[in-house]
Structure formats: structure tokens, C-alpha cells
Amino acid sequence: MVTTNPSEDRVMRSVLVTGGAGFIGSHLCERLLQEGIRTVCLDNFDDFYEPAIKRKNVAPLLTSSLFETSEGDIRDLSLLRDLCDGHQFDRIVHLAARAGVRPSIQNPLLYEDVNIRGTLNTLEVCREFGIRNFVFASSSSVYGENTKIPFSEDDPADFPVSPYGATKRAGELLCYTYHHLYGIDVTCLRFFTAFGPRQRPEMAIHKFTRLIDQGKAIPMYGDGGSMRDYTYIDDIIDGLFRALLNNKGYEIYNLGESKTTRLIHLIEMIQRSLGKKAVIQELPDQPGDVPVTCANINKAREKLGYNPRFDIEDGIRRFVRWYRNPERDP
What we know:
Strand order of the largest sheet: 3-2-1-4-5-6-11
Structural class: alpha/beta
CATH architecture: 3-Layer(aba) Sandwich
Largest sheet: 7 strands, parallel
Number of helices: 11
Strand content: 15-25%
Shape: globular
CATH topology: Rossmann fold
Number of strands: 13
CATH superfamily: NAD(P)-binding Rossmann-like Domain
Helix content: 40-55%
């Protein structure tokens, strides 16, 4: 059994992963099972993208006696209570959320309901059932149009430019409140554009790969000069697992590669990996998008031992291999 120290209260035995059938969640559940940790995946299998994709994500895990799924919504407090009453969770990883910057502008009330109320419900069951260890999936979107590059955890995060970013910042603040009031150990992880096998189909790398492969036009918002810090899924999961093992007090960490890639260069890399030429449809900049994201990961390196291993080109090659043969992760 994996522990952070010999103390009995730091042993990781049973983990609830909300949003556990999604892109990041399914990879985390897989890692937890590899470590011999009992894992419960809570997911509502909603139609934000095809529910069958999420069911396929976790299907191979169902053969493990250490794994189970529960279908339900984080807004259902009674469901969460029943789950915690029936299991002795020592940790909750809260990944479930309504995702995406642009859709949040179109439907802000739904994002508020799922992302804020759902987070509050999950913190409430930690309080009620004495679960002392909580990891919250935040986002680089909380930084808004930050002009200080790279983004550091102590930079202001008071001006998010999308409802999605605002709900993630609100989640961080609620996490701090529950840490302060009830002594729950909380780590908030600000993910920077995760990608890799099982990535959601509407996200840029997956969408561009699919459309280029099909000979269809890809939408490029702006002049292709926007920059993102793309983080390969294996590095995200490594940082997430390290946070679970080293969760004490209240901490915020960036999880990124600490390198930026221009959108036009990303498209070029996908073209090379596919061996096909992109048809680009140039479109105006979109509200809520930011010109650049870039993570300062010094804190995660020093305190978690986080050390990303996959650069963007290697990650793209691995993603394309998975895209062509999704039955086998690279």
C-alpha cells in the first residue's frame, strides 16, 4: 500500500473520483488500480459529448475487484451521502465539472450549478463523513488574461474572462473555506490544456486530428498566433497522484509543461504526424479565449517532485497513434 509516511491516517486505501469516466478521470482510476487502491468512479455520463465514449473509457477497469462505478450527479447531495456512507473513503479527487470556455459563455447558469454547487456538495460530504483529504481539479482559466509569463500560483486570479474560469476560481475559494473551517487538507491543481489518448473529442488536438484525417476544414480562431501550454496526460496523472500522496494544508499547484506552442505550429505538428495537409478556415478571435497560457511549475517541482517528461511533439505522435488504434493506448 502506498503511503506518504508511516502514520496510519496517511495511508491511501479507498478513493472516490468524481468525473472518473472522463478523459483525466479514467486515466487516474487506471493509475490508482495499478497501485492497488480501491477506487470508486462517480460519473453522470452526460451528453456534453457521447456518453458511450466515457463508458468505453472505464470498461476495461470493470474487471478489477478494486473498481466500481456509480452513475449519478454531483448536484445530488443524497447520492454523495449514500456513496460515502457505503464506503470508507480516505480521499476524494473532484474532477467532475462542466468543461469548456466557449460553452460556458452560452450557458453560464448550468456551469454555475454544476461547478459551484457540485463542488460545495462534495466538500460537504468530506465534512460530514470526516474525509480529510480532498484534491480539486482547477484550471489555468482562473488566470484570465494574465500578462506575466509564466503564470505563477501567487499571481492574481481575480479576473477570469469566462464563466468557466470564474467557477473554477470559486471552487478554489470554497476549498480554502472548508480547509480553514474544518481542517480538511486540500490541494487545488491548475491544469494547463491536458491532451493525450481519450481526450474529449471537442478539444483542439482531437478535433483537428479528426478533421484533418477526414479532409475537412479545421477552424482556426485568430491568426494562429495564440499560445498554449499543452500538457500530456501521463504528466498530468503523475502530478495528480503525487498531490494525493503529499496533500497537507491548503495548496495550489500549476500542472503544465512550462512551454508554449503557437496554434499554427500545433496544426503543423498534427499534419506531420498524420501525413496529411490541413485545410484551414480562418475565423475571428472568440470571446473568453486568452492569447497565452504558460505554467510556472517550480512549486510543483519542489514540493511534489513533479517533472513533466513528454514534450508536445512526442505527445502529438502518441496521440495520433492512439487515434489510429484507440483500442491500445500508446
